[in-house]
Amino acid sequence: MKQSQMFIPTLKETPADAESASHQFLLRGGYIRQNAAGIYSYLPLGYKIIKKIETIIREEMDRTGAQELLMPAMQPAELWHESGRWDVYGPELMRLKDRHGREFAMGATGEELITSLVRDTLNTYKKLPTTLYQIQTKYRDEKRPRFGLLRGREFIMKDAYSFHAETDTLDDVYWAMYHAYQRVFERCGLKFRAVLADSGAIGGKDTHEFQALAAIGEDTIAYSDGSDYAANLEMAEVIDVPKEKPVGQPLKKIAGNSGTESLAVHWFKTREATLAVFLRAEDEVNDVKVKNYLGADMIEALTDEKLDAVHPLAGVRVLADNALKAIADGVFYNKAEETTYAELDPSRDLPIEAFADFRFIKEGDPSPDGKGTIRFAKGIEIGQIFKLGTKYSEAMGAYFLDDAGKSKPLIMGCYGIGISRTLSAVCEQYHDQNGLIWPKDLAPFTVHLITMNMKNEAQKQLSAELYQSLLEKGYDVLWDDRKERPGVKFADSELIGSPVQLVVGKKADEGIIEISRRSDSERKECAVHNLLEQVNALLQTSH
């Protein structure tokens, strides 16, 4: 493609609201433009990369036997009422009404729609298992859109759904998807980790997230320095090393606040109950672990303003973190009674219903798999796979007949990849201070051919010959044939970030050009007759 004919509106200055490197360089390189908060247009360069990521995903999905379809983005509200998620999903679900007053949701995900689509057709074990996927724009009304494509209100996603008669085939497809996702992200050139995760509003039990490692990442990954264990921080299990419990003293009550509490209470509310969760004061309560322990579909942390000034444990469920089992001399201030309890033995003095793991893991803690210690890293979630079980099929009446003629709910799995997030994650890992450095399999153009002076006939003629020759050999080439100063051309080339740069300059009449890899700062001379060999060599050593 000739650059003079291509829409690449590069920017010299970084927009003030662009915080992350990916946001800055995608804007400056002419890849995207913002239309509203969290809503972007993909310009020709950006859309070329989106299509390349989609191609990789399609190839790997098709390899698993999944079949592609396309469902509407507008989803009838009654489907979400059937699943029970219309009120549970929260304000991120974009809702609207048509002219007849019928309510719809703009698809944030597709479990309800796909279940309604198959419930009358996948009605016998003979049609199972089946996996369907789509690539589609999704919508979520993020409270605080930020970091460009990393947290937007409109984004491109691949979502797949599998349907089964038995859990064995769900396991098979789950792990087939796991390995397919690994191949997708490896082909995209990403450094990533597959981590244990929480299913959140999607539901289900077993789930893995795929996290691209990046300092800007909003998720914290807890990983072992002695094994391949990795988990999202909220899901990392804390292993308590057994300790001998000291002999305790009688409980003491002291008026007022001693200011030396070793225990803390955290208050929560579910649909069914109010909870008091006790931890060591030095630990941080993990509300996801509390929610999962209870099997609740929602949980809300209660502040002091939301609590009644009554005895703190009256009529509530009391839980405690495992670490409290070994404590015999705790100190706890009861705000309602304005009394400090000293020499407190939680097992003896508190009406604890159960001990469990309710705290966040810390760096330096033992790895849950018993190998090494825990370290932290930041990650960008780019994909997640779930075993949904029968949550949606039971709620929405999606049943099949087994080989004995018995009606059973379909067993489901779902599998998502954030395509636009993957684009940004690659940018976060592949850039320098001047612009982007694309992996060769995703680059919008493999080769950037730059003519220093289009008024020089020798440079113009040689550039045209090289351009045509490279195209005939199958290279995707961007030819900067603009009548711009060399400094402008080089600055734009670094922003765009093609893997190989060719410069046709003063030695054009000698058949000599300059060649370099975008990730290198040094260009070297190359005879035209050796050009293809040199380009191939640089591409083979590129990412």
Automatic annotation (TrEMBL):
Signal peptide extent: none
Matching CDD domains: ProRS_anticodon_short, ProRS_core_prok
Record keyword Cytoplasm present: yes
Coiled coil: none
Alphabetical UniProt keywords: Aminoacyl-tRNA synthetase, ATP-binding, Cytoplasm, Ligase, Nucleotide-binding, Protein biosynthesis
Main location: cytoplasm
Catalysed reactions, semicolon-separated: tRNA(Pro) + L-proline + ATP = L-prolyl-tRNA(Pro) + AMP + diphosphate
Domain of life from the UniProt record: Bacteria
The Aminoacyl-transfer RNA synthetases class-II family profile domain, residue ranges: 38-439
InterPro entries: aa-tRNA-synt_IIb, aa-tRNA-synth_II, aa-tRNA-synth_II/BPL/LPL, Anticodon-bd, Anticodon-bd_dom_sf, Pro-tRNA-ligase_IIa, Pro-tRNA-synth_IIa_bac-type, Pro-tRNA-Synthase_IIa_type1
Entry GO MF terms: proline-tRNA ligase activity
Enzyme Commission number(s) from the entry: 6.1.1.15
Compartments reported by the entry: Cytoplasm
Record carries keyword Metal-binding: no
Domain remark in the UniProt entry: Consists of three domains: the N-terminal catalytic domain, the editing domain and the C-terminal anticodon-binding domain.
Function: Catalyzes the attachment of proline to tRNA(Pro) in a two-step reaction: proline is first activated by ATP to form Pro-AMP and then transferred to the acceptor end of tRNA(Pro). As ProRS can inadvertently accommodate and process non-cognate amino acids such as alanine and cysteine, to avoid such errors it has two additional distinct editing activities against alanine. One activity is designated as 'pretransfer' editing and involves the tRNA(Pro)-independent hydrolysis of activated Ala-AMP.
Family to which this protein belongs: Belongs to the class-II aminoacyl-tRNA synthetase family. ProS type 1 subfamily.
Oligomeric and partner information: Homodimer.
NCBIfam families per record: PRK09194.1, proS_fam_II
Protein name from the UniProt record: Proline--tRNA ligase
Organism: Sporolactobacillus spathodeae
